[in-house]
Design a protein that fits this description.
binds S-adenosylmethionine, two-stranded antiparallel ribbon, alpha/beta
Amino acid sequence: MSEPQSETASFGFRDVPKTEKASLVRGVFDRSARKYDLMNDLMSLGIHRAWKDMTIERANPQPGQKLIDVAGGTGDLARAFVAKAEQRRKTRGGDPATAIVTDINEQMLLAGLKRGNAEHLTWAVGNAECLPFDDKSADCVTIAFGIRNVTDRISALKEMRRVLKPAGRFLCLEFSRPTTRALERIYDAWSFNAIPVLGEKIANDRDSYQYLVESIRRFPHQDAFAEELREAGFGQVGVTNYSSGIAALHTGWRI
Ligand code: SAM
């Protein structure tokens, strides 16, 4: 079940008034946007790329399909979705797939636009809790490492279901719980010692990276979050652990 209704929301290890969380999260990503891609590679030792590739394999992009990538940041998933569909289009024909990268933070979208190579992508500022898109307009909705930053997760999940076409698929990649105590200890040591230091040295911003590791620990474990997907109305809910649960892919369908 989701957390009981309350006036506060978690911001890392702190509880803050719900009305303040979005602007605090916004500050984190305003500060980290410029070095976001580099820090992602350093913090995860590049492994986030493999997790994202596996997510897009599961999304099974087809020519002509439309993706909405929520909290899409610099557009990794959207680029991979369109590229995979293009590979298939070479042999099968059809229209190009398209993707909308939507994010509450325009600095993140601008950092993505600067990377170039954005054919068939569009970029739109939008809050996951009230998406600026029509009902039943996407074949696939993804969100990677975004849901734990959202103030009201159930509202956001319902919104992502709303914009999916019937039989459309939802994929949520997020940090999760390591499945063994030994791995958890190594992971804790890396997260709490190395990541804030990397943030300080590379991005001159220790606090944002401290928030990052704390927010991961506050996020529900695999089974609890799967229950939230069901509560939001998704069917055929499933979970796949990546790297022994350091990340998990949550999937569901609009039935
Ligand atoms: N999906 C990208 C990736 O995997 O590289 C970016 C992930 S980044 C860790 C989290 C993103 O969530 C940030 O770009 C942030 O601006 C966005 N975000 C936070 N709260 C949001 C909200 N309520 N609605 C939409 N995006 C949000």
